[in-house]
Specification:
Radius of gyration: 21 Å
Structural class: mainly alpha
Shape: elongated
Helix content: over 70%
Strand content: under 5%
Distance between the termini: 50 Å
């Protein structure tokens, strides 16, 4: 019984400095690959905003629901934009362009932004 607990704990043998270095390096990842999740999120939020505006213009949604959803989507997009490691990048500028759209932007304009973000996302995934 005397050494079994240590044999199971693989991290116990690793020096603490090595662990700290590993965690520090992992948290420092920057650039487009680190932002990929945010690009994907922004694309999805933009597409959802387009759908909300389309259904709202067809009278399928209440004004209250539309207003609340637009505000929520805009807030999530702002949070996503603030999370980017490279906010001045092409994708950062595209997300800012989405945020510059009025709440009642045409579904086509929003889908165009979503398409641009999808192209950027696809190019980063294949890199």
């Amino acid at each position: 019984m005397k050494g079994t607990a240590r044999a199971r704990n693989g991290f116990a043998a690793m020096p603490r400095k090595s662990l700290l270095l590993l965690f520090a390096l992992a948290s420092c990842s920057k650039g487009p690959q680190a932002d990929l999740q945010y690009i994907s999120q922004a694309r999805s939020l933009t597409a959802e905003w387009a759908l909300i505006n389309e259904q709202s213009s067809e009278g399928k949604l209440t004004d209250t629901y539309t207003r609340v959803m637009r505000a929520d989507l805009r807030e999530q997009l702002q949070t996503t934009a603030k999370s980017l490691t490279q906010p001045n990048s092409r994708y950062g500028q595209e997300i800012q362009a989405v945020l510059g759209e009025p709440d009642h932007a045409s579904p086509q304009a929003l889908r165009s932004h979503a398409d641009q973000l999808k192209q950027i996302e696809d190019s980063l995934e294949s890199a």
